Amino acid sequence: MQNVIIFGASGHGSVVLDCLEKEGKYNVVGFVDSYKSKGYRINGYQVLGSEIDLPYLINRFNVSGGIVAIGDNWTRKLIVDKISKVVPNFNFINTIHPKAILGKDVLLGCGNVFMPGAIVNANSIIHDFCIINTNSSLGHDGIMDSYSSLAPSVCAGGGLKLGRFSAISLGVNIINGIEIGEHAVIGAGSLVVDHFGDKIVVYGSPARIIRNRTIGEPYLSTPKKQYFTELKSLDKVQSNLSI
């Protein structure tokens, strides 16, 4: 069994650890995290060091690869770049929870996470470093470009094309044949019935563009003030639609 490391000792790291343990293909030797002290323990495993310690850790623990357990798409890319700079050609693995289902002729890149209950239907393509979260589904012939993600309980119809770094939030429903650009965020609970472009925040039922967003802007937690400002913007959009 190959020894691997998890990058990111957070809640998302715990879920990735659970996937790896349940999958039973790899032996996890510990976590690597730049923001937690060496020796910090999570779920019985230690933080072994930071990314700069990677050459030593590979030799010390006979590490054959690892996976980046960072929920934010852009931050995940920054960590991947940092790792690749320290150890070129590092082996990034996929992890597929045994309760995830991958259909016929699904093509996978590297560094992807498939959580319990995730479903990827036939002829879909998952590029690199994507997250298909708990109980989310990607319909047939779907394409997820690198560093994109589906949050828990997303239901995407067939033929979705999801751009690089774009995030579909909790409980979003997407009809068949939708294209979403790069660096876009679809807000929780939205119903997506139209195509959307790059660098925007979208939500509502039906989903509408709320504002533009910058590359790398955090999206996993929204300050209350910003949330209520955007909520008012959404109310205004829906009011105009009803006129």
From TrEMBL:
Family membership: Belongs to the transferase hexapeptide repeat family.
Gene3D superfamilies assigned to the protein according to its UniProt record, in alphabetical order: 3.40.50.20, Hexapeptide repeat proteins (2.160.10.10)
Lipid biosynthesis among keywords: no
Binding positions (substrate): 10-12, 71
UniProt entry tagged with the keyword Transferase: yes
Keywords annotated in UniProt: Acyltransferase, Transferase
Site (Increases basicity of active site His) location in chain: 141
Residue ranges of domain PglD N-terminal in the record: 3-83
NCBIfam families: NeuD_NnaD
Residues passing through the membrane, by range: none
Residues making up the signal peptide according to the UniProt record: none
A Pfam family matched in the record: PglD_N
Name the record gives this protein: Sugar O-acyltransferase (Sialic acid O-acetyltransferase NeuD family)
Catalytic residue list: 140 (proton acceptor)
Single GO MF annotation: acyltransferase activity
SUPFAM superfamilies named in the record: Trimeric LpxA-like enzymes
